[in-house]
Design goal:
Elements (H helix, E strand, L loop, with lengths): L6 E5 L6 H14 L4 E6 L9 E3 L5 E3 L1 E3 L5 H12 L5 E4 L7 H14 L2 E6 L10 H9 L2 E4 L12 E5 L5 E2 L13 E4 L1 H8 L1
Parallel strand pairs: 1-7, 1-8, 2-5, 2-6, 6-7
Antiparallel strand pairs: 3-4, 9-10, 9-11
Helix pairs in contact: 2-3, 3-4
The protein binds zinc ion.
Length: about 200
């Protein structure tokens, strides 16, 4: 019988432990002997190691996806050379995929019956959808929010970019790599109030 897979999108703001969730999932697969692969789009070329790393201090090796990587072609080659593809494919930072690469992942699901779980941000620091996230919202089989809480108690919605003084920045490039020092996940109300 042919495998039937699904394309999943699990989205949340920065700091909602999406990466930790991915790494925990990979760890559980490993423990139970379930074949899987981890991928991540390359955004920070200063990164010497191809790893997925969580703020809580765990990491795991992954395969990099470059802007011109054809994911379907890559996995097809893997399928031809080594038999069946793993049942599970985990993708971190899926917001940085191109729309075409999301379509390629969907094709992997439909033609090979793999389950593909994409973890990523919904929107950028200007509250606009990322390209990869937009396409995932459009075509994923299953969409699930990974929630986290603003200091005021509401759900975080916005990945605010902040400057050295902690003020919210609203102008700039969509992608600017940074951690806790550059970004702060806040609720919509706190974001609006801080802009006033
Ligand atoms: Zn708030």
């Amino acid at each position: 019988m042919q495998r039937i897979g699904k394309l999943y999108f699990r989205y949340g703001t920065m700091g909602s432990a999406k990466t930790a969730l991915l790494l925990t999932t990979a760890y559980n697969f490993e423990e139970r002997g379930i074949a899987h692969l981890c991928f991540k789009p390359v955004t920070d070329t200063r990164e010497a190691k191809n790893v997925i790393r969580s703020r809580i201090g765990i990491e795991r090796e992954c395969r990099w996806i470059y802007p011109d990587t054809d994911i379907f072609a890559t996995l097809s080659r893997m399928n031809e050379s080594g038999g069946m593809l793993p049942g599970w494919i985990l993708v971190d930072e899926a917001q940085f995929l191109t729309a075409g690469q999301v379509d390629q992942l969907a094709r992997v699901v439909d033609e090979y019956g793999c389950n593909v779980i994409c973890y990523g941000l919904r929107t950028d620091f200007q509250t606009k959808l990322f390209e990869g996230s937009r396409r995932l919202f459009e075509i994923a089989d299953s969409i699930e929010e990974v929630k986290s809480t603003c200091t005021c108690g509401r759900k975080t919605i916005v990945n605010a970019r902040i400057d050295r003084e902690g003020r919210i920045v609203t102008e700039g490039e969509q992608v600017e790599i940074g951690g806790n020092d550059r970004y702060m996940a806040v609720c919509r109300k706190c974001w609006t109030n801080r802009l006033l």
